[in-house]
Specification:
Elements: H1 9-20, H2 24-37, E1 42-48, E2 54-59, H3 66-71, H4 99-105, E3 108-114, E4 121-127, E5 130-137, E6 142-148, H5 155-158, H6 164-181, E7 186-191, E8 194-198, H7 205-213, H8 215-218, E9 221-227, E10 230-236, E11 249-253, E12 256-257, H9 261-269, E13 283-288, E14 294-295, E15 306-307, H10 310-327, H11 367-379, H12 385-397, E16 427-429, E17 459-465, E18 469-474, E19 477-482, H13 483-497, E20 504-514, H14 517-525, H15 527-533, E21 536-541, E22 544-551, H16 556-571, H17 578-593, H18 603-615, E23 629-633, H19 634-640
Parallel strand pairs: 1-7, 11-13
Antiparallel strand pairs: 1-2, 2-6, 3-4, 3-6, 4-5, 7-8, 9-10, 9-16, 10-13, 11-12, 14-15, 17-18, 18-19, 19-23, 20-22, 21-22
Bound molecules: adenosine-5'-diphosphate (ADP) and magnesium ion.
């Protein structure tokens, strides 16, 4: 082994730069954090060629005195920490004293800075971390840092850079992230001379979210809740607006953008059984907790954190989001798009599909269950005639009832049965009343309109469309209910409420079920789990299992298919989480057992469904995330018929 030497500061900086400065976007992140820490209220970022040749950040923060400006570029030089104790309660974005040294070691830097009240500012030029020029300079208060020719002296790193467009895109994302982290700071980004982002810095998160997510933001649900000394604020998407990836999940802990499996899991838990599998919610969420309840010093780029109490953090996020979703009245309105001049007439009228055979609504319920179901229906809160009359009278005299478009109407306090997940007592939440998009709204987003169902107004069953959608009239609103989605949700909730083993039926003659070799083996190895799910299987040879018992609500004809799905889930590793597997199976059972679109059902059956939907506001989505009910207002129709 060769002789050991201590590395020169320059090489040490280059090594550190590898961790902190990965690409132009990471430089921007660090410089923006410094600007925020300097108390800036306005920060402008300018880049050329994706930030590779030129990158400038200007802030109006506290600036640096000449000697500080020189020290700032040394390794481990910081004004944000003094003692080891300070490390356990960090309130600034930066604290490692590494960023400027690391950036300077791989670029040319020009710095201009001036503190408040100083006669003149300081100008510094550095090359590969060494100061090559220093002078007094006239400049405004604050700091400007120009980084040129990033990685000019580390060709190996340069090779990893993508096209200017890609690097520029990453810079934009980094600025967006800081803008969402610090809504009180106005951020502007110029890319090759063109302004691509500008946030107002009013301190309102919604304004920043709007500048970045645009109209998407108006559809999001506000979150604002407390859990002991933890606070969760921000916006989350509705289950119906889920996305194919997690790219739109933005999470901050004490203002710091973080990647955290724990937070993601807590967020997604709140959407469980409301969202299609393979789809993800989007969010901009700020978790604020005491500085000593989180360790931010676990990653060089400071993007990972450790929590003192993971359980409390999980609960805060999970219940906070859940409460927000539950509170949101969510019955989207029918949309009329302005029709093109001539409405195209289809060349051949669509052939009427043959009506599938009718099956009875309660076919999969036992007598006992049917009795319970009917009793539940009877016990469901009925419209109160007196209150209803009063509300109707009010409706007639006050034309500006909140049953109108263009406004998101908060749900009034309702005597509804509590939504399924009960929030723990130490949990408090408040939903912002005004959730109208902020000032720079180019045009209204019609889809954002949601209306609560007023509980007091009597409703009337009108009929059914296409053997699929039930029409209900209530006051000045009409509701279209997807009978399959509604029934599926009701059955699913009922199955799920039964927390113990799923009740099952023994088949008169056992049902053979052929599977893949792996699938059969997996099922046989999990017989205890199958038992909980209401299945009893037996080996029959040749990759075939004999089904002896199946879940009560499941039709015999569907049993083999469900079993195959369970095998599939087991094989793809869902057995790690038993409750997920159980839920998946309950989805399938509920879906199979529910009445289908296109079936002919008698009015009594449909009325029973309507009763549930009209009295239980929490019935919003089927277990796969499709809406159960949409609204159509009298006003909308009047507008279509040019009556208003
Ligand atoms: P850290 O942010 O971890 O302290 P940096 O290397 O990023 O380390 O910065 C070193 C020091 O330089 C900071 O602690 C701060 O005092 C000073 N500094 C950096 N950027 C600015 C700025 N934009 N305005 C004022 N002071 C700054
Ligand atoms: Mg810093």
């Amino acid at each position: 082994m060769a002789k050991i030497i201590q590395l020169s500061p320059h090489i040490a900086n280059l090594i550190a730069a590898g961790e902190v400065v990965e690409r132009p976007a990471s430089v921007v992140k660090e410089l923006l954090e410094n600007a925020v820490d300097a108390g800036a209220s306005k920060v402008t970022v300018e880049i050329r060629d994706g930030g590779m040749t030129f990158l400038r950040v200007t802030d109006n923060g506290c600036g640096m005195a000449p000697e500080d400006a020189r020290t700032a570029f040394l390794r481990h030089a910081t004004s944000k920490l003094r003692t080891a104790e300070d490390l356990s309660a960090i309130s600034t974005c930066g604290f490692r004293g590494e960023a400027l040294a690391a950036i300077a070691s791989v670029s040319h830097i020009d710095l201009l800075t001036k503190t408040a009240g100083a006669v003149s500012g300081t100008s510094l030029s550095l090359e590969a971390g060494a100061i090559v020029e220093e002078s007094d300079a006239g400049c405004p208060e604050g700091t400007t840092i120009i980084v040129r020719d990033l990685f000019y002296n580390t060709p190996a790193r340069m090779k990893f850079m993508k096209s200017d467009t890609v690097e520029g895109g990453k810079v934009t994302a980094a600025v967006q992230m800081q803008a969402l982290a610090h809504p009180n700071v106005a951020f502007t980004l110029l890319r090759d001379g063109k302004q691509v982002l500008s946030t107002p810095g009013t301190g309102e998160l919604q304004a920043a979210v709007y500048c970045i997510y645009g109209r998407e933001c108006a559809k999001m649900v506000p979150v604002d809740s407390h859990w002991e000394s933890y606070r969760l604020t921000g916006y989350v998407s509705k289950p119906t607006d889920s996305r194919p990836s997690r790219a739109m999940q933005t999470l901050f802990v004490n203002g710091r953008p973080v990647k955290s499996k724990l937070l993601t899991a807590a967020l997604e838990e709140a959407y469980r059984n409301q969202i299609m599998s393979g789809k993800f919610p989007s969010c901009v969420l700020h978790l604020t907790l005491p500085a000593n309840a989180v360790d931010v010093n676990v990653h060089p780029a400071k993007t990972e954190v450790k929590f003192l109490s993971e359980k409390a953090v999980f609960d805060c996020v999970h219940y906070g989001v859940l409460a927000a979703l539950n509170k949101t009245p969510d019955r989207p309105q029918v949309q009329f798009k302005p029709s093109p001049a001539a409405s195209p007439i289809p060349a051949t009228p669509a052939a009427k599909p043959a009506a599938p055979k009718q099956e009875t609504f309660f076919r999969t319920m036992t007598t006992e269950e049917f009795k319970n179901f009917s009793t539940a229906m009877k016990d469901a809160p009925q419209p109160r005639p007196a209150a209803a009359a009063a509300t109707v009278a009010k409706l007639e005299t006050v034309p500006a009832m909140p049953l109108r478009e263009d406004k998101i109407v908060p749900t009034p306090a309702q005597p509804t049965p509590a939504p399924a997940p009960v929030l723990p007592p130490q949990f408090t939440t408040s939903i912002k009343k005004e959730s109208v998009a902020p000032a720079p709204v180019p045009e209204k987003e019609p889809e954002q309109t949601v209306l609560p169902i007023p509980m007091d107004i009597p409703w009337r069953y009108v009929g059914e469309l296409y053997n699929t959608y039930i029409i209900v009239e209530q006051g000045e609103e009409a509701f279209l209910i997807d009978k399959h989605a509604a029934h599926e949700r009701i059955l699913f909730d009922k199955l799920k409420a039964n927390q113990e083993t799923i009740s099952s039926q023994t088949l008169l003659s056992p049902l053979p079920c052929r599977l893949s070799a792996e699938g059969a083996a997996e099922l046989l190895a999990n017989d205890a789990l199958l038992d909980e799910l209401g299945f009893e299987v037996e080996e029959f040879g040749e990759n075939t299992l004999l089904l002896r018992r199946i879940p009560m609500d499941l039709n015999e004809a569907d049993a083999a298919e469900v079993l195959e799905e369970v095998a599939g889930d087991l094989l793809t590793g869902k057995q790690e989480d038993k409750s997920t597997l159980r839920d998946e199976m309950l989805h399938t059972v509920a879906c199979k057992a529910a009445i289908k679109a296109g079936w002919t059902n008698d009015e009594k059956e449909l009325l029973a469904l309507v009763k549930e939907v009209m009295t239980r506001q929490e019935l919003k989505y089927c277990p796969h995330g499709r809406p159960i009910c949409i609204t159509l207002s009298k006003k909308q129709l009047e507008r279509q018929f040019k009556r208003s």
